[in-house]
Amino acid sequence: MSGLILVLAIVALALVGARLFVIVGVATALCFLLFLGESEPLLQMDRIVTKMEGLTTKNVFLSIPFFIASGAIMTKGGIAKRLTDLAQAAVGWLPGGLAVAAVVACIVFAAISGSSPVTLVAVGSVMFPALVKAGYPNRFSIGLITSAGSLGCMIPPAISMLIYAISVQGSAAVDPSDLFFAGLLPALFIAGLLALYSVWTGLKVPGSRQPFSGPALWTALKGAAWALTLPAIVLGGIYGGVFTPTEAGAVAFAASVLIACGIHRDVPWSKVPSILTEAATLIGSLILIVVLAFGLNDFLAEIDAPGVIKGWVETADLNAWQFMLLVNVILIVLGALMDSISATLVFAPILAPVAINYYGIDPIHFGVVFVVNMEIGYLAPPVATNLFVAAAIFRQPFVEVAKAVMPTLGIICAALLLIIYIPTISKGPLNLREGRPMVEAFPWDGAPVEVPEAVAPEGAPAAEGEGKVLTLQEMMEKARQQREAEDAAAQPPAEATPPAEGAAPVEGAPPPSP
Amino acid sequence: MMALLERIDLVLFRAEQRVVAVMLAAMGVFVFLDVATRVSVGAGSWLGNPLALGPVAAAVAVAAFYTRDATHPVPKGLAAGLGVVVAQQAALWLFPNGLIWSQTLALAFTLWLGLLGAALAARERRHLALDIGSKLWPPALAPKMAALGHALTGAFCVGLLLLGLRSVGAHYDDWAGTDGAAGTFPVKMDLFGAELPIIKWVVFLAVPYGAASIGFRFLLDAVRAWRGELPTGEDDTLQQLGIEAPKEPTP
User: Fold this and answer.
1) What ipTM goes with this model?
2) pTM (2 decimals)?
3) How far apart are CA A505 and CA B16, in angstroms?
4) Which of A286, A507, B76, B89 has its CA 20 to 30 A from that of A6?
C-alpha cells in the first residue's frame, strides 16, 4: 500500500508538471514517512534538511560550481568559432572533412564547456549552416551534430562522472581522476566512429573536401591555442599531482577569466558578473536536485536496496553479460525519462554494488558504461534534452530531429555494446598508466571483485560514517589503497594480504556528515 | 496586489543576482589563491623561486600578447612577468600559511550559492520538469494543470522553509548557548591576522531563505499560469534549458 501511494504521488506530480526537485523531494519525504516514520515522523523529515546542510561538508561539490562557471565564461566569447575554424583547417581536407571537423569541434568544445546542450548550441549554430551549405543532407547534419554534442558528458571534467564517483562511494572507492582518464578513450572511440560515418557520407557529397593550407592552420591554431590550454591545464594539473580535481575547478575558473577576458578579449570584464549570475542559476537548478537526492540515497541504503536487487538477480539466475545488458536497457529507459544527474544519483548507488560485488564488474568500468548510457539518454525521447535543443536551434520539428539522430544513435549504441564487453577500452589506458597489463577481460563468469577496504560485510547494518561523502583527496587516497590491496591480493598466496571482512574504516576519514 | 508582489520579486531577484556573482567570484579567487600559494611554497616547487617563476610568466605573457596581435608584445610580456612575481610575493606575505580555510568558506558559500541560484532559476523558470503532463492534457486544461504543478511546488517549498527554520533555530541555540564556542565550522578564517569563525546557523539560513524565495516565485507563477500567462509544453521545456524558442514557424 505504501509503495502504491509513493508511485501515485510521483506520477501525479509528473502529470501536473511539478519540477523535478519537488518530485525527488516528495519521493524522499514519503519514503521516510511511509517506510521509516512510524515513530517521530518529524525527525525523519528533519533528515531532508540535515542532508541539504550536509553539502557544506562535501568538498567534492566545490568543483561543480567552478567547472560550470568556467564553462560559462569560456563559451560566452567566440570560442566556438575559433575551435570550428581550427577543426576545419586541421581535418577539412579529409573526405567529409567539414563533418569530421564538426565532430572534433564538439569534442574539444565539450571538454571546455562541460555541457552537452551548450556544446550543441555553440558548435551547432556555427557548423549546421556550414554543413548544409556544403551540400550535406539536412538530416545527416542534424543527427551528427546533435549526437556529437552529447559527448560532452564523457569528456573530462565531466560533471556526470563526478556525480557517479560521489554516488557509489558507499560501495567502492572510485577516484574521480581515474574515472576521467577511463572515460577519455571511450569518448574518442565514439567520436572516431562518428568521424568514420562522416567520411563515409562525405564520399557521396561532391565538394565536401577543402584543400589543406599550412598558413590557414597556423592562423586558426593561433586563434584557438589558448582555449586548448584549458583542458590541458586541468588534466595536466590533476594527473601531474599539482592539484586535486576540486582545486582544478578553481584553476580552470581563474584561467578561463584570464583567457576569455584578458587574452581573447571576447568577453568584456564588465560582463563577467552577469555570466557568473547565469552560471549560478544553472548551479541552483542542479544542486537542489542533488541535495534532495542525498536523502533518497540515505533511505535506499537504509532499506538495503542493493541487497534487494541482488536477491532479484540471484532468483533470475542472470550471468554477468545478461545483467549488464539488462542494466543498460534499464539505464537507457531511465535516461529517456529522467535527467542524467538525477538518474545517476538515484540508481548508481543501487546498481553499482550488485555489479561490483556480485558480478565482479570493475567500478570504474561500470562508471564509464553508466555515463555512456546517460549520454544516450540525452538523445532518447521523451526527455531527450539535446533533441529539444536541436529542434530549437535548427528550427526543425522535434520528430524530424528524432528521426535524424537514429543512425548516429545506432552507432553510439553499437559502441556502447563494445565498451561494455571489452573493458580494455575504458580500463586499458588506466592499467597502462599504473603499470598493469593493458588488456582487461570482461568477467563472464561473474567472479566478484575483491574490494577489501570499501565493501562492508554482506547484510551488515550501515556502520558509523558509512555512506558519508568523502573529500576528493580522501576518495583518491581510498582508491589508491584499494588498488594496492588488489595488487597485493594478486600476489602469490604467501605474500597476499587477505581481505578482512568488515575491515576498519579508512584512516583519516572525516566524521560522518550530519 | 499582484503588481506589488512582482515588484518585491524583482527587488529580491536583483539583490540575489549581485550576491551570487560576488560569492562565486570570491569562492574561485580564494581557492585559486590557496592553490597558487601552496604551489609557491610547497617543498621542491620550483615555481616558488621568483627567478624561475618570473621568466616562465613573462614567456607565457609574451605569447599571449603575440597571439592577440598586441603592439610591443615583448616589453608588455616582461612587465606582466614582473607583475606576477610581485603578486606572488604579496600573496606569500599576506597568506604565509596559504588559505587553508578557503575550501571551508567556499563550501559555506556553496550552500548559499546553490539555494540563491535555485531561487534565480525559479524566477527564470529554469528548473527542470518531466514534460509528460503538458503532452497529455487538452490545451484548455494545460494552464490549470500547470498552475496546480506550480502551487504544489510552492507548497513543498513552504514545508522546506518550516523544516529549515527548525534546523536554524537548533543551530542558533547551540551557538548562542555556548557563547560561540560551539556551532561553528572547525576552520577559522585568517584575514589580516584576525581569526573569524564561520558560524553554522548563518550558513544554514540559506535553506529557509532559499525555500521561501523559491516558493514565493512558484506561487506567483501558479497565479500567472492559472491566468494563462505562462508558456506550456515545448516552449516551457526550452525555457528550462535556457534556450530561446524558434521565432519562425518550423517547416
Assistant:
1) 0.87
2) 0.77
3) 42
4) A286
